[in-house]
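Predict fold of Metallo-beta-lactamase domain-containing protein; 264 aa.
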Amino acid sequence: MASKLFTGDPEKVLVIRDIPNTPITTLNVPFLRFGRIKIGGRATLVKLQTGNVAVFSPVALTAEVKAKVKAMGPIKYIVAPDVEHHLLVDAWAKEFPQAELVGPEGLPEKHAHLKFSHVYTAKVKTDMPVTTEFDQEFSSEYFPMHPNKEIVFFHKPTRTMIEADLLFNLPATEQFSKSGVDAQSGILTKLFGGIMNTRGDMVWQKRFLWYAASKGDRAGFAESAKKIKSSWDVERIIPCHGDVIETGGKSIFDKAMAWFYEKY
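Predicted 3D structure, encoded as tokens:
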């Protein structure tokens, strides 16, 4: 099933990019939501100071990906940051059986044959302990009210936010760059891309966050957003969908969350 969510041969369309002067590598692939909307997909590899590696939102485990991982170091953490970005966890867990699985509540039930070592719940939304080496480098904030149960991570040494579906930055130019397909082609892609981007005042993405993403508990959503605002000095944002925001991440995050700051 997972392979059908990607366009083309993953081996041929994969874009591996090392982010300069950081221990971070992104694995970028084409991805079609509902088989029609071009939003792209991205895994993020982070080499910890201990030498171990964490992968967030795993993508297809191609030969090139395996080679890259082998060059970086042992996979110690496989992180599914929400209940949507988990379809390839099984393949990575099988390939790296020593890795510890991390994800939100509700996800272990989708993978009953796997052991999740660290499960985020609403009881500890901020900086749930994982392990000493992980906690030294990452802060986290859990949004249990989000329909996808989002966990957002902050790599402190590089001031990098890593997130799945909290913010989009379409079009997915890098992710479709080797596919031979225009990342902005198609009426549905144009419509969705017009909403889920970070240009201008982001009014449509603000509306999505307000009316859809936070409708279960807007006060709780605002509380988490404010914690990020006050505690994380974000420079870079790595979303799963759309291009990486290389600089000015804090101002973009604050712009997206402005309504929550104002009303709560």
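The chain is about 30% helix and 20% strand.
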